[in-house]
Amino acid sequence: MDSFLEALILTCLQKVKGERSVSGTYHLLKGKKSSQTIQDSHLFGISRFFGIYPVISREELDSFIQKFTDRGFIQKLPNNNYAVTGTGMSELDDYLKKFPIPVHLNGWAIQNTADVFWRRLSLLIQTLSHLVRKKKGFYPIQKDISVQKWIKQYISAQKLDRQELSAAILSEILPLLEQLSTREREIFVLRLSSSMRTGHTYDQIARMLDLDETYVYFLFVSVLHFMVSRINWEKNVHPHLSILLEGSDLAEKPLTQSTHTTYQYILNGMDKEAVARIRNLKVSTIEDHIVELALTDARFDTSPYLNSELEKEIASVAISNQTRKLKEIKEHLTGSASYFQIRLVLARYGEKI
Amino acid sequence: MNLEGYLEKYFGYTNFRPGQKETIMQIMDGKHTLSMLPTGTGKSLCYQLPVYIMNKPAVVVSPLLSLMQDQAEQIRVRGEKRVVSFNSFLSFEEKRYALNHLHTYRFIFVSPEMLNSKQLLEGLKKLDIGLFVVDEAHCISQWGYDFRPDYLNLGPVRKELGYPLTLALTATATPAVRSDIIRELGEDGFTEILSSVDRSNIALRVEKCSSYEEKQERLLTLVKDLQGPGIVYFSSKKTAETAASLLQRNGTGRTAFYHGGLEQEQRILIQQQFIKGELDLICATSAFGMGINKENVRYVIHFQMPMQMESYVQEIGRAGRDGKDSAAILLYLEGDEGLQLNFIENELPSGNQIRGIMSYLRSKNPSSSEELSQIMLHEDLAGFFSLNEIQLRITQHLLQSVNDMDDFNTVQADMIGFVEKRKEAKIQKLRSLLNWVHTDTCRRTLITRYFQQDILQKPEQCCDNCGMNIGAYYQTDMPDNVDESRLVFDWKEELIDMLIPGRNE
Ligand SMILES: Nc1ncnc2c1ncn2[C@@H]1O[C@H](COP(=O)(O)OP(=O)(O)OP(=O)(O)O)[C@@H](O)[C@H]1O
Ligand SMILES: [Mg+2]
Ligand SMILES: [Zn+2]
Predict the structure, then answer these.
(1) Which part of the chain is the Helicase ATP-binding domain (chain B) (predicted)?
(2) Which of A235, A349, B141, B357: disulfide with B180, CB 3.0–4.6 Å?
(3) What is the pLDDT of residues A50-99, one digit of tens each?
(4) How far is A17 from chain B, CA to nearest CA, in Å?
């Protein structure tokens, strides 16, 4: 085993016991919001790995599979899936004894929130550390303009002055970190940027602490997951940090209750007509919910409602004509599409049009 | 107030750098201007100052997203808030907000593909644009080294905007490319301001190695001896990474690698560490450098030669922006040009790919050029004919010229002709650079001659052929090798220091 990432992938393969293809593991790590991926992740007890390594590419995963095969860690089954061999198991056990899977990882519940939380927190700390020293003009570590605006508003909305706000943030973070291992605390602090120094990359931290880069990454993610869940759990103990979580879960804008209920049914693999029947609502209402989901969650799986060819066609018509008018788009299409399908594509491609 | 007065007032500088004042005077005179100023000497100021003097907004077209972000950010850091950038990463909401507030901005950065948006164009039309700026203007020329098909749209856009006062900026354009720029932008009379491409404070040196190992060894010695900070350019991500870890293992402590394959946040960290002096050395691909404004880079080493003189001049131009002595060193190993030849081959679609695409399109029987472009949008040409991204864009660009459906055959012949010609031109450029590598005459003179200029005065530290003393660029006192992995680090102290000032200050 050359890296923690490899161990993690092997763990996934071992958990699905050859009952699912490699693609399943790929979608799991990427965090694909399809009912198949989500259900499987719960079924095989690996939902805590959901979406925790979105940068993985298919080629990268395939090269690991090749390597595992060459080393005899896995074996191809008649159904074309892979099973972990005895050699693979003992290699894995040995590796995980030295480098255990970080305990706080909880991808399914937290990954989205943690991502937003980090972007806000890292920029907040960088900003405060400049403000308390009255240093102006620095290059923000987060380039996303919406995060920058969010932090600006956050700071000016606080009743505390900058010094007090800094102290308050510190007093909320310290006790959280103190519940973690030294290694985890160090990784977290090294990742931060301030007026004194720029944050370190995973690669740099790995060399400082003599760890493998992917392990540093997953330990860091685990720290974030821990923080998010503690803060959520005791909001009153973390009044300033808990604001950083606002609107950061699953959906950017919180879903309406009704949409949320529809979502649960869809995740269970129900089609929209069935959901309408069971909830005693009109199909068009369920369609509204689905559009809302597509709008609020970039990873929401729209494939059950629309094949990719039609999706491409609608998108290219909308983009090339720079229009969001349903009727106009419909007229330009060569084939036929429902308004629901067009709305779905617009929800997905909204930013490009 | 005279121009110097404005310069002092808005930027706090006392003197213009060569070419700046001339350019700004043309602009203030209302003349469309093509200005070629050496790398890193302050082209941005040529449009920023007029914006303040005229008190009218500038629309700035920039070829790369990262370049655009960096420039917008540099303006913001100066304290200017009225800046916006339009690019495909803007969310729908953000875009709508920006469009509704278009009249409030002073600097409007746009990527060329955003100018396809009717909404944006309509918005821009309503403005009283003071200056239309085309940065890195050589990207418009098919014979330039960094051709971007999207830039060809700029001529029509200028027309649509009613020919606003225009400033085209570049550091590296041969006369042929310059006339291409002017023609593509609309030919309505451009004044040219040409400074010398020569950067006299950068000494030029080529070292030939006889094996790859020797080259690595030489790199190691050089980065240990030379006064940093420095950049080493590699032709692939892999070699940049490998070299960085080789250097780290051999005690060049503050070294990192940078390439387009890194995740965005990691890339930003490396870039900022370098700018703030927390790193001494970056091993990078050509993805690093554009838009990075670091004054005190003391050397640029090329571990592999680039593809042509233009890129070489751009890349070494990241050294010595503070005007102090710096060195550019190219390490050459017989056969290095093979790598670049490969790139050239792979950049363009092959004759077979073109024939395949054309017969495929023919079989679809399009009746108009609109239908043809619809087909191209919908079909996965790249997938069917295994085109990479550049090949696809070039193919799309070539197919845009198809007007009459009857002459598919002539178009096919034109396309193959274009590709052949372009390939030949690139190979020619590579050959010129190779000649430069092998020359025993003055390297500086050859560079200026490539751009059909003359050298004004050779500096004392000119090039290896005129005699330069590399020892002058060595570190004077060797720093103790700080082994970072052994640094004691107290996470708590550090976190407290970030947020509570004064304890150790
Ligand atoms: N007149 C001046 N006096 C002092 N510094 C200047 C002057 N003009 C520009 N500068 C500084 O020079 C640096 C480089 O400027 P700029 O980025 O505009 O260069 P450039 O020519 O666009 O470079 P590139 O070739 O990378 O595009 C900036 O830090 C800028 O502030
Ligand atoms: Mg520039
Ligand atoms: Zn010389």
Answers:
(1) 24-191
(2) B141
(3) 999 999 999 999 999 999 999 999 999 998 999 999 999 999 999 999 99
(4) 32
